[in-house]
Write a structure and sequence with these properties.
TIM Barrel, 8-stranded parallel beta sheet, globular, 45% helix, alpha/beta
């Protein structure tokens, strides 16, 4: 069954982005995040053997959790992650993978920074727009981009620290996507206990912003 990505993002408020140097580390990090209640996990294709990590996380994901793939650029990338069971794809830019994923019925969060890119990706069928890198303009920029596009669901990604979460959600993002500030070195074989603690703090920050 196709995931309603927009609804999942709006409900979860936090999308974890796993980008590691070790496949086993990426799987361990993703498992820990899912166990701590992070409902959406994305494995970037820059991670070694990322499709295997996606498949492994799908196998252990609790009911209600959603596992996808990021840094998906080409039609071939879409085929690889679809075979691994990715439930959604994320792109860093307006690229060919958007149309291919839509053709296959896989929801897409498409990377865009400018209003033109956001509009173009939406017309291509993206379910949500990943404002990336969000840190370039911060919550004020997100609010300004949303003004002419109030119906486009935006996810703020790129340099979103813990203290930034309320600002982005308050500016109208349906969720935040967090890589390094949340995952740290855990996806490369680092500290899983620290990752679990950070996951709890991010979830608390996001839940505290509900209704803002």
């Amino acid at each position: 069954m196709t995931v309603n990505l927009t609804a999942e993002l709006a409900a979860a408020r936090v999308l974890a982005v796993i980008r590691g140097t070790d496949t086993a580390g990426a799987i361990a990090a993703g498992t820990a995040l899912l166990e701590e209640g992070i409902r959406l996990v994305e494995v970037a294709l820059t991670t070694p053997d990322a499709p295997r990590a996606v498949a492994a996380l799908r196998a252990v994901a609790p009911t209600g959790s959603v596992v996808g793939a990021g840094s998906v650029l080409t039609a071939a990338d879409v085929a690889d992650v679809a075979a691994a069971g990715a439930q959604f794809v994320v792109t860093p830019a307006v690229v060919e993978s958007i149309s291919e994923a839509v053709r296959r019925g896989i929801p897409v969060a498409a990377g865009a920074l400018t209003p033109t890119e956001a509009y173009t990706a939406t017309r291509m069928g993206a379910s949500a727009i990943k404002l990336f890198p969000a840190s370039v303009g911060g919550p004020a920029y997100l609010r300004a981009v949303r003004d002419p596009f109030p119906d486009i669901p935006f996810v703020a990604v790129g340099g979103v620290g813990l203290d930034d979460v309320p600002g982005y959600l308050g500016a109208g993002a349906i969720a935040v996507g967090v890589g390094g500030p949340l995952v740290g070195d855990a996806a490369s074989g680092g500290d899983l206990a620290a990752l679990r603690a950070r996951a709890r703090t991010y979830l608390a920050a996001a839940r505290g912003s509900v209704g803002s």
